[in-house]
Amino acid sequence: MSEIIPYSKQCINKKDIEVVKNTLKSNFLTDGPIVKKFEKIFAKNVNVNYATTFNSATSALHASCHALNFMKKDILWTVPNTFVASANCALYLNGIVDFVDINYHSGNIDIRLLEKKLKSTKSKFFPKILVTVDFAGLPVQQDLIWKLSKKYGFKIIEDASHALGAKYKNHKVGSCNWSHITVFSFHPVKTITTGEGGMATTNNFFFYQKLQMFRSHGITKNQNHFKFKSHVKKKWYYEQQFLGYNYRMNEISAALGISQLKRIGIFVKKRNSIAKYYSKNLNINNIILPHVDNNSYSSFHLYIIKIIGKKFKKMHFDLFNLLRKNKFFVQMHYLPVHLHPFFRKKKFRPGDFPNSEKHANSAISLPIYPDLKKIQIDRVIKLIKLFFIKRSK
Fold first, then answer.
1. Assuming Cys at both sites, which of 206, 233, 243, 368 could form a disulfide with 303, CB separation 3.0 to 4.6 Å?
2. pTM exceeds 0.90 for this model
3. Does residue 78 have a pLDDT over 60?
4. Whole-angstrom Cα Rg for the chain
5. Cβ contact 355:101 at 8 Å
6. What structural domains and CATH numbers belong to the chain?
7. pLDDT tens digits for 2-17?
8. Which helix (H) or strand (E) holds 357?
């Protein structure tokens, strides 16, 4: 029986296993030096001043909203074509969520629709934060959004959970050239993994301080930041200054992250190579292939084809099931956030964001990860081609 081929999975080697074993034998399993080392190495890798680890990207998004002073009844905008965490981070702080539709072809936020929505929105209803999403590893045109943020006064969190290793206009995603904070995910299907984990990067020291404290109960041990200066000489003293959470990454995860980060260039190069091979061999009339413009370098976290034609919904359904039947665990990214039952309660309805809904009815995420074999890729391509040949008869 042939094995199930997922749409993505982790790539673990002997060195990864060895560093984890060594960490298990060390003096620290949590709150130790390896986490700090990972943060320092990661910041250097993406050319940013500060990096803060978290136990997930969801935690990092939550902390980022807090760092940007997002409060009750403040408004956050994001795209429907994302994982729910991009929106939920506002709700954790009792905020309000609204959406801006995507460009159907890129899967990223449609900047023209964003500008149109800003122009038609009264200033008291402007978003305090816009969460952009680098969908499938393709960077958003953040420089254009940065200009809008200056005009309309909102802060930007770049949700780069898909985009570690990507570049836009020769700037690495995570450098925060055009965002206040950037967030990454280290879930096993992402570019690198720490088992579970996340990172928030920023060039702003004040935001960095708040991120560091938020992930650890709102506590600081830094004497320079104490509110009660009379306790500075007490070596045991620390202060909780606001309500935070236990969102810390452990030493084991950080050790794995350091080892994985050493191969980030190899991982992304292999993903791009697989994407190029798919695109060369899936030139079919009923399929839209991913496009990367000259200003961008995608991490290709996902390789997504979109089915087009008069009966595209039916073809999408049938092709998806055919691939699953043949042990290719393809996926659809994403069910639009506003169509989940939880968000329907907030008065969102089908038809509100048609590009995201059309995307969901036509998109299939094909297998793509560094260890994927050419024979497996060829099987996927063959199945898809045979499917459309039969449909054309």
1. 368
2. yes
3. yes
4. 22
5. yes
6. 5-261 (3.40.640.10), 265-392 (3.90.1150.10)
7. 789 999 999 999 999 9
8. helix 354-360
